[in-house]
Amino acid sequence: MSEMRVTYRKSAIGYAHDQKATIAALGLRRLHQTVEHPDTPALRGMVHKVRHLVSVDGVAADSPAGMALLSAAEPAGRVSSGSAAIPDSEVPAVAAPRRRASTSHTGGRNEAS
């Protein structure tokens, strides 16, 4: 399996918590740090989520060349799961979640003025 080099290029300060968590999950702690990971669809998804903060194999991940790297064919040995559909007869029925009774904007208190 091939390796993908991910480099932390831009600070995650000011970005959403889930993006900071993705940077940490990639093993990146400091700016300009580079890590190597096996090229898997999960890694590609993580890099895609923070593509504005990282570069891949020396190319900015949000540039056209970087996007081409991320959207390249799936790694060898992987089978795309998008074409295999589950028949409706095998999908378990799931009940809709119950909704809570709505309360007025007063929090259930009577407005006596």
Polypeptide structure, described:
Helices cover 22% and strands 14% of the residues. The protein contains three helices and four strands; from the N terminus they run βαβαββα. The protein is elongated, with a radius of gyration of 22 Å. It has 113 residues and is of the alpha+beta class. The protein has a domain at 3-57: Ribosomal protein L30/L7 (Ribosomal Protein L30, Chain: A, 2-Layer Sandwich), CATH 3.30.1390. Strands 2-1-3-4 form a four-stranded antiparallel β-sheet, with helices on one face.
What's the short story on this structure?
With 113 residues, this protein is an alpha+beta fold.
Taken as a percent bin, the fraction of beta residues is: 5-15%
Instruction: Determine the structural class based on helices, strands and strand pairing.
Output: alpha+beta
CATH topology assignment of the domain at 3-57: Ribosomal Protein L30, Chain: A
CATH C-level name of the domain at 3-57: Alpha Beta
Number of helices, counting only DSSP H or I runs of 4 residues or more: 3
End-to-end Cα distance = 73 Å
- Main β-sheet: number of strands, strand sense, barrel status? 4 strands, antiparallel
